[in-house]
Design goal:
Elements (H helix, E strand, L loop, with lengths): L3 H14 L12 H8 L12 E5 L4 E8 L2 E7 L9 H4 L5 H10 L1 E8 H5 L5 E2 L1 H6 L6 H10 L2 E4 L7 H10 L5 H15 L1 H18 L3 H17 L1
Antiparallel strand pairs: 1-2, 1-5, 2-3, 3-4, 4-6
Helix pairs in contact: 1-9, 7-8, 10-11
């Protein structure tokens, strides 16, 4: 049985750092771009399809708009710093992405299929099967995505790329990935070993730093709230 605490720590690191899973947003050499362009046969995609790029612990989602264009939600710190579309429309780098997640600013933008996936495998409309929901007509899906283009608040749990896609595709914004994460957090809270571990860590911090408010109060209240929540 997998350790739920290790799972949630791993997922947090994956979502916050996003480096290994989102290397496709780094700018590459011209030869690399040419190689990526040959990976996808976009003629098999239809306007309004959901495109999915599976990663280790998460999946990135977008709506295909036709003509090799994908609408998807992307965190980007640059959106909070400048209105220069010439700069913000460039492919989002890892640093821009990570800082955008932290400050919770994003946009629903349009990129090519190659820049959206950057060499990763693409699943088409896999959510229809996994969620067992009836999709709206493809043209309606695409129009919904196009109406939402532009700046948007971002939240890993409450407003991410999966919420955007499921709203466009099914009419309701949901995120099974976020739900799974929250369930894992609940398991950790309910596990009394978490109370013991937090108490031990709190005691160790008090021993190392002394009885000061910034260590004593958390050392007392965190185990208490975990105990009450469990």
């Amino acid at each position: 049985m997998k350790n739920p605490m290790l799972e949630v720590v791993s997922l947090l690191l994956e979502k916050l750092l996003l480096i290994s899973n989102f290397t496709f947003f780094s700018s590459g050499a011209a030869g690399e771009d040419k190689e990526r362009n040959s990976l996808y046969e976009t003629s098999s995609f239809h306007r309004g399809d959901v495109l999915e790029v599976p990663r280790t612990h998460l999946t990135h989602y977008g709506i295909y708009l036709g003509d090799n264009r994908v609408a998807h939600m992307m965190p980007d710190i640059l959106l909070a710093l400048t209105d220069n579309e010439g700069r913000t429309q460039k492919v989002v780098s890892n640093k821009r992405l990570i800082l955008g997640v932290i400050v919770k600013v994003a946009s629903i933008r349009v990129d090519t299929v190659e820049d959206f996936a950057y060499g990763a495998n693409i699943l088409v409309n896999h959510l229809d099967q996994s969620l067992q929901k009836k999709a709206l007509l493809n043209e309606e899906v695409a129009r919904r995505a196009e109406k939402l283009l532009g700046l948007t608040p971002y939240s890993l749990l409450w407003n991410n790329c999966e919420h955007f896609v499921t709203y466009c595709r099914y009419g309701t914004p949901i995120s099974p990935q976020s739900d799974k994460f929250c369930e894992t957090v609940k398991i950790i809270i309910r596990d009394q070993r978490s109370v013991l571990a937090s108490a031990v860590l709190g005691l160790a911090s008090i021993v190392c730093t002394g009885l000061v408010s910034y260590t004593t109060l958390p050392a007392i209240f965190i185990p208490f709230f975990l105990w009450m929540a469990g």
